[in-house]
What we know:
2-enoyl-CoA Hydratase, Chain A, domain 1; 2 domains; 4-stranded mixed sheet; 49% helix; globular
Amino acid sequence: MADLLFEKKNNIATLTFNRPEARNALSVEMRTSLRDVLAEIEYDDDIRCVVLKGAGEHFMAGGDVKRMVEFIDKPAAEIRASFTQRIHDLHPIMFTMRRMPKPIIASVAGAAAGAGVSMSLACDLVIAADTAFFTLAYVHIGTTPDGSASFNLPRAVGIKKAMEIALLGDRYDAQTAKDIGMINFVVPAADLAVETDKLATRLANGPTHVYGNTKRLLYRSLENEWESQLQLEGETFADCAARADFREGVTAFAEKRKAKFTGK
């Protein structure tokens, strides 16, 4: 059975980490499939929202530590080379998620640990069951965060809180994760699937190109100087104003009705 499942329905792509017997620990196959599927989704105009979730009771309980054990007795140079490659193999996934011109939602049940936290932080929005929990956890196996967590976490929670989360490796319940800015929404566990679908459907029916430009604006603001950011604001607004969804939005406002966006 594939380690990653891909379903496309009603302009929503749902990607399911599919190793429930291992709490969906990130395998090589899962990583490769995720990279390839995200690259395909990026340019599929029929897909207007993406959802990441885990099969079974958990989102993702980190990397595949059982496979890591195979390396511990190898020479240091071989270990460095192997793990350098493994970590860099994650980067195209993170680049694509950041660049993706449509919103990505993490729907988190159960454990989000290690790479699971990294994956959720790389999404644009995170909705979690009230029984979910988050732990960066890398420190507990004697290594540092990967999957862009070291970039995304301080920007989500601030540098002091990020230090606490990363250095102590403590476990945070969903409400605490929301309160400190790691996630956006907490819902009853029984309602997670329904509430995720509501959120995804809302986004899939929105002005997709606007969402893409808004992602670009907000993420670029983390590195841009003030003048560069204002220049980008002008470019993205003008680009959106030349499109069908802007015409529909302005017309609907004038006619006092709800806009019907097509994502174009």
